[in-house]
Amino acid sequence: MQTDTPTGIFLTIEGIEGVGKTTAMKFIQKYLTHIHQDFVLTREPGGTGVAEQIRQILLTPNTIETITPEAELLLMFASRAQHIQHFILPHLREGKVVVSDRFVDASYAYQGGGRQIDINRIATLEKWIMDNLRPHATILLDAPAALGMARAKNRGSQDRIEQEKIDFFERVRAAYLVRAENDKQRFYVLDATQPLNVVHAQIKTVLDKLFGMTR
Ligand code: Z5A
After folding, report:
1. Average pLDDT score over residue span 161-186
2. Is 168 near ligand 1, meaning CB less than 6 Å away?
3. How many domains are contained in the chain?
């Protein structure tokens, strides 16, 4: 696949459910608007028409039959393939900032950590589907699974993956932290147990650095 010379900045937000990714996306939107950056916001799974259809399959609670871990992983990458070719790369080539609520690290964390699929298989898909595309920076909002689950619960009904037990989300969190430890240049791990204003101040510090706003 072709991923020639995109000039924009690709920023991803990661973390277990309920850590505040959606809230962080709104903060980042305001920040980028304020500094007059041309940007687009997106999410995974999803981000294009077909990818959003795949999202529906992935998140709808099981009714017909269970989705196997392998099918789940392949669908995540099918959605990602659409997202990259029809949304992320075109915008990066136009020089825009692309901010995605989740990206490939979620596959390592959920399908690798949570479902315990061999990460070499995930790496093979990553190489095939993403070629040399990588986020320039990734904000990992980190909090214990119990806290994230409690925050998410207030929202009402749970999707298929949210119905997993706490051990699953603890494995997901641990896998995220391993990814961050192994790629300190790209990852910014923020303490999402802090009050919102403190988390947002931490995000602002990251954005100031990324967009050269530090004095
Ligand atoms: N998935 C996967 O398995 N593999 C992959 O490769 C990819 C994804 C890409 C997508 O769900 C699912 O797909 C996800 C992983 C899987 N499944 N799970 N679980 P999603 O990303 O669309 O939704 P989510 O992860 O479930 O996100 P969420 O539950 O919406 O959480 P959030 O966006 O991180 O949280 P929030 O909505 O911003 O905040 C939740 C509540 O907490 C809200 O009321 C906030 O006001 C409150 N909040 C947030 N921060 C704070 C602080 N700091 N203090 C107090 N209260 C706070």
Report:
1. 95
2. no
3. 1
